[in-house]
Amino acid sequence: MTDAVVAVSRDMIRKGSRSFAAAATLFDPATRASAYLLYAWCRHCDDEIDGQDLGHAPAPGAEPFDPSPAARAARLEALRRQTLSALAGEPQTHEVFVALQRVAREHRIPARHALELLAGFEMDVNERRYETLDETLLYCYRVAGVVGVMMARIMGVRDPAVLLRAADLGIAFQLTNIARDVIDDARNDRCYLPAQWLREAGIPAAELADPARRPAVAAVVGRLLDEADRYYASSAEGLRALPFRSAWAIATALGVYRDIGRVVRARGAGAWDRRAVVSTPRKLWLAAAGGARALWASTVERQASGEPRAADLWVTPDLAAED
């Protein structure tokens, strides 16, 4: 698929996420095109909810964004109707819904996965607060874990046990995002850290962005990154089930995102003075390391039984019915 819809989708990922765009180049051409299509729909939905342009601030002169709960709820409902229409095979005119329709049909992605992502955005629209780690993990699954599941289906995975590992990777990514963006989120009156953890650390939610609270916030974020590491480790066990090039792309993305968490952790209370990023030379090194990891997984590890998934990791029953 090298037509206009794929081209538009490719441009969206290149402008919206340089890290994921770089990792996607490691896929074989067909898988890469499907990844672009899925990303385009996910990115569009996220932008519609948050009033962004490919994850960034809108360009000057863009149509004003109405951030009221009612307006955001209306946009979410429109996204839900358009998504259901696309998944039902009805004709589409917007490129991102054409993209979703194609990728869902080709890879038999169940409609419930796309709707799960929208349910995650609904949690943002409703300004949900998270009391426990499990509640935070539910959010992480909905906005990122289920994307991992859909990506795994694009790579040919149907085994629910392997799809769980893909969900683990998405959850780890989102936990890392929360850790990196916790202060920016707090300034926008959003908090994804478990309220129980904040109380234990003596941090009033209203003071999360207060510079005087940074050492305590860093300690809570350290706990969150510990959790992320458990999900990264679990997800790596799924590499053996993937074709080599897919395993290479995923191992590289895993390495880059895990490294963002490493940067946040290493900076301590200064983690939010500037955005945590991974340098280009480091990304290249991680891509090489990802290739070696993928080669090992697709040869040696494929012949052996893997480590069982830890029983205390969060799990959704949604994957039990996979075909």
Architecture overview:
This protein has 323 residues and is mainly α. It folds into 2 domains: 1-57 and 66-108, no CATH class; 129-323, Farnesyl Diphosphate Synthase, CATH 1.10.600.10. Helix content is 65%, strand content 0%. It contains 12 helices and no strands. The chain has helices at residues 4-16, 18-24, 29-50, 69-87, 95-107, 111-125, 133-154, 160-187, 195-200, 214-236, 244-267, 280-298. The longest helix has 28 residues, at 160-187. The two termini are 25 Å apart.
**Care to count the β-strands?**
0
Sketch the major β-sheet: none
CATH class membership of the largest domain:
Mainly Alpha
Summed over residues and divided by their number, the pLDDT gives a mean of: 92
For the CA atoms, what is the radius of gyration?
19 Å
SS content category: mainly alpha
Number of helices: 12
State the shape: globular
Percent of residues in helices comes to: 55-70%
Report the end-to-end length measured between terminal Cα atoms: 25 Å
Q: What is the element string, with H for helices and E for strands?
A: HHHHHHHHHHHH
